[in-house]
Hints:
The protein has strands at 2-6, 9-11, 17-24, 33-38, 45-50, 57-59, 67-72, 77-82, 91-97, 100-101, 105-109. The strands form two sheets. Strands 2, 4, 5, 6, 9, 10 and 11 form a seven-stranded mixed beta sheet that branches. Strands 1-3-8-7 form a four-stranded antiparallel beta sheet, with no helix packed on it. It has no helices and eleven strands. By secondary structure, the protein is mostly beta strands.
Amino acid sequence: VQLVESGGGLVQPGGSLRLSCAASGFTSSNFAMAWYRQAPGKGREFIANINSAGYSSLYADSVKGRFTVSRDNPKNTMYLQMNSLKPEDTARYYCKGSDYWGQGTQVTVSP
């Protein structure tokens, strides 16, 4: 079983990034999936989740209106579209499916 995040990088405030989480070794479409993030010196924070069918999602207040979670079940992939990024969004972003976690992808928002 493997979850692999990609799409992180360095972006200026106000910019956008799209993260991907590719699942293998299990049928991710059977499970809700979620995004979390962890900034240096802080605990892991819930960002968003999406149900197995992809029609229902929930967001943390800190990202509501700026981030959008989606999934493509035939591709076993979940996405996080991040717009209007702020320096406080700087963190390592992780995806979670069932009891499995990816290794994360770093997002840095800086001028």
